[in-house]
Amino acid sequence: MFRLRHRWLAVLGRSGAERQYHGLTPMCRGAAGVTDRDRLLVRQLEPNLVRPTVLASGLFWERHRKGGYQTEQRASTKDLIVNGLKELRTEFALFQQEWKEKLESDPLVVFRPGEIDVVFGFESQPDLDRWVVTTDRDHGEGYSQAALERSPAGFGLFHGTLESRVPKDGRIKRAGYANIKSLRVRGPVPLNRITNVGFSVGSRGGHEGSFRLEFDFIGVEFDPSHQEEFAYEMYRQPKYIVAT
């Protein structure tokens, strides 16, 4: 009698949504047998009722893998083949140029002090095509404009206008940035962990307007007198706290 009375009190103490949840069959409660009706019922449960099946059903919000900037449309197999054949001609020309440079010149085995290995140049239009220009306007998050062109002196010129004015959508709080990023580093780069190079220009403190940044070339230099310093090594703490 005591067990029956205790069981009835436990059932009456539950909420309506929780009683409906426990009324589901064990098969429906499993992750493999969840139906649309059961998922709708689980969504209507009280917030303090959390079950493992809710996590398995994927009902919680998850952060986008691309940060919300993945705007590409999925292309069909036919479009992928056509676009791949178009890019194949460019890749073969680049492959031929790389082998020509490799056979004509000797590879650098020992870098001499003060010698600069040019990785990126800005002497022709194909050199500029290796860079991608991005602004907040491209993503609908502002009104900044930027472009990468050749200057009258024959160098690369990254110029544009930064605007901190935000769109009236109630979602964007800050705006005003422009950046350029290389597609991919080609050739033997000593720093094997670097795959691309980028530069960003942003407006801070309400300062906006036009900007101009000119590049001659981007290269790597061997400097024997240079001593590398990391941020962790420059981070100082009082004695007898860390690194004792």
From TrEMBL:
What Pfam families has UniProt attached to this entry? Answer: CIA30 (PF08547)
Q: What is its main location?
A: mitochondrion
Per the record's keyword annotation, is rRNA processing included, yes or no?
Answer: no
Question: What Gene Ontology molecular function terms does this protein carry?
Answer: unfolded protein binding
Record-annotated NADH:ubiquinone oxidoreductase intermediate-associated protein domain positions: 120-199
| Taxonomic superkingdom | Eukaryota
What keywords appear on the UniProt entry?
Answer: Chaperone, Mitochondrion
> Coiled-coil region(s) at which residues?
none
> GO CC annotations?
mitochondrion
Any one Gene Ontology BP term: mitochondrial electron transport, NADH to ubiquinone
Name the SUPFAM superfamilies on file.
Galactose-binding domain-like (SSF49785)
Localization annotation: Mitochondrion
**Does Chaperone count among this protein's keywords?**
yes
User: What PANTHER family does the record tag this protein with?
Assistant: COMPLEX I INTERMEDIATE-ASSOCIATED PROTEIN 30, COMPLEX I INTERMEDIATE-ASSOCIATED PROTEIN 30, MITOCHONDRIAL
- Family (UniProt): Belongs to the CIA30 family.
Q: What is this protein called?
A: NADH:ubiquinone oxidoreductase intermediate-associated protein 30 domain-containing protein
